[in-house]
Amino acid sequence: MSRSYEDLEAEAASVSVAGWDFSWLDGRATEQRPSWGYQRRMGERMARASAALDIQTGGGEVLAGVSTLPRLIVATESWPPNVAKATRLLHPRGVVVVADADEPPLPFADDAFDLVVSRHPVTTWWREIARVLQPGGTYFSQQVGPASVFELVEYFLGPLPEEIHRRRHPDDARAEAEAAGLQVVDLRLERLRTEFRDIGAVIYFLRKVIWMVPGFTVEQYRPQLRALHERILRDGPFLAHTTRFLIEARKPVSSA
């Protein structure tokens, strides 16, 4: 027997959305993973690094899953609940967690790190990354690509202009990295199948990923949520497509 809209809404509206762990969605939503395996490849680079920085670490979950960390490692995060969660999770691994506003400048000296990583940064401050990287150092990042999950976004907001669909394009990331003096050595984009199997999954996702539907509240969008609940019951899971791109860039050893 299908659960009522009221039951699903109450559950999803009350659960904590702190951190960057999406395990609450297990069995309720699925997202195809990129083929490159970001955490594994990031871990390989961490094992070779001597000083590393993880920007916008969230709750620290991805970094905590790396088996070998460098001698010196720092993580930054801006959202206070995530700062607290990352501190609890990462301090036992020897990671210093720094509360940072995610705006320039980064609170570190020039040439401080030989590896800088970031998974799903909201904004990439390329000149700051280039500044804190040592010559020969690497920036390695998985990022949200253009028009990610826009089927769901446009269900609530209506059709968005083409220039918004074009935002976060990997070609723009390449141009910005190169303008900051970095050499892009790897860049790839994938479009991945995502399914929401009940309305609770939709509510939880929009509460957690707050920039998808800015200012989202259940109260404001309850008519659309109820209609989508009925649609899922009638037609099956709501299908959307996530976009992700991987970018790796290096700071030249010499500008000469």
Automatic annotation (TrEMBL):
SUPFAM superfamilies: S-adenosyl-L-methionine-dependent methyltransferases. Pfam families: Methyltransf_11. InterPro entries: 23S_rRNA_MeTrnsfrase_RlmA, Methyltransf_11, SAM-dependent_MTases_sf. It comes from the Bacteria. GO terms for molecular function: S-adenosylmethionine-dependent methyltransferase activity. Residues 53-140 form the Methyltransferase type domain. PANTHER family: METHYLTRANSFERASE (PTHR43460), METHYLTRANSFERASE TYPE 11 DOMAIN-CONTAINING PROTEIN (PTHR43460:SF1). This is Methyltransferase type 11 domain-containing protein. It comes from Myxococcus stipitatus (strain DSM 14675 / JCM 12634 / Mx s8).
